[in-house]
Specification:
Keywords: Membrane, Transmembrane, Transmembrane helix. It comes from Eragrostis curvula. The protein folds into 3 domains: 30-96, no CATH class; 98-139, no CATH class; 145-216, no CATH class. The protein contains 10 helices and 2 strands, in the order H-H-E-E-H-H-H-H-H-H-H-H. The protein has helices at residues 4-29, 52-63, 82-91, 93-96, 103-108, 123-136, 139-144, 146-162, 170-188, 195-216; strands at residues 66-71, 74-79. The chain has a two-stranded antiparallel ribbon with strand order 1-2. A hairpin with a 2-residue loop joins strand 1 (66-71) and strand 2. The longest helix is centred in the first third of the chain and has 26 residues, at 4-29.
């Protein structure tokens, strides 16, 4: 009996967190849409498929057009029907527009509240949105870079024509010409040096964007 007492205490210590987790999770789940239970601490993270669209489509078939899923310490609500997505993203956009900014996002975006994607809905967010809509995405704003976009699009076509019969990484070329060159020309008035220099900067920039995207989750 004395030998089994420590083992019993160990089993109880291991089971207690799981029991508490299930009790708390069941209580919280009463206010959430249905969804997979997941595991303690990590939730459904170990089970997520790399093809997210097929994974969420499978969950929608099982749990319905509105479901909840726990990813680590965060609970996400997934809306999969066009009608509900329209209601969330268009009709009730101010209600759902606020986003939780992860710590990586705060580090990358200087606390995250000085850009439209991380700023909570309020006067600053409305000002940033107004600037984007009226200055950057307005017909006048798009027309102001029309010549730049036309020039870089023509450069891409000439490059593809020169590589006829050869394998070409179209995504890389579009990124270098149609994205990098337009951005640098808009900000600095000129493109980045030679094609080799652009390729080097483009590779570094793509790696940086990929790393930031990974950190942001």
């Amino acid at each position: 009996m004395q030998a089994t007492a420590p083992a019993s205490l160990l089993y109880a210590a291991l089971l207690l967190p799981a029991v508490l987790y299930l009790a708390v999770n069941r209580r919280r789940s009463r206010y959430l849409p249905p969804g997979p239970t997941g595991l303690p601490l990590v939730g459904s993270l170990p089970f997520i498929d790399r093809n997210l669209h097929t994974y969420f489509a499978g969950l929608a078939e099982k749990y319905g057009p509105v479901l909840s899923i726990r990813l680590g310490s965060k609970v996400e609500v997934v809306v999969s029907s066009p009608e509900l997505a329209r209601e969330v993203l268009r009709d009730k956009d101010p209600v759902f527009a606020n986003r939780v900014m992860p710590e990586a996002g705060r580090a990358v975006c200087f606390d995250g509240e000085d850009n439209m994607s991380g700023s909570p809905v309020g006067p600053k967010w409305r000002l940033l949105r107004r600037v984007v809509v009226h200055e950057m995405m307005s017909p006048a704003g798009l027309d102001s870079v029309h010549d730049l976009r036309k020039r870089e699009f023509g450069s891409t076509l000439r490059y593809l024509h020169s590589k006829s019969g050869e394998p070409v990484d179209v995504g890389r070329q579009m990124f270098l010409n149609d994205t990098m060159n337009v951005l640098t020309s808009t900000m600095w008035g000129s493109t980045i040096g030679s094609e080799n220099e652009r390729a080097a900067v483009g590779r570094e920039f793509r790696l940086l964007v990929g790393e930031i995207t990974g950190l942001l989750g």
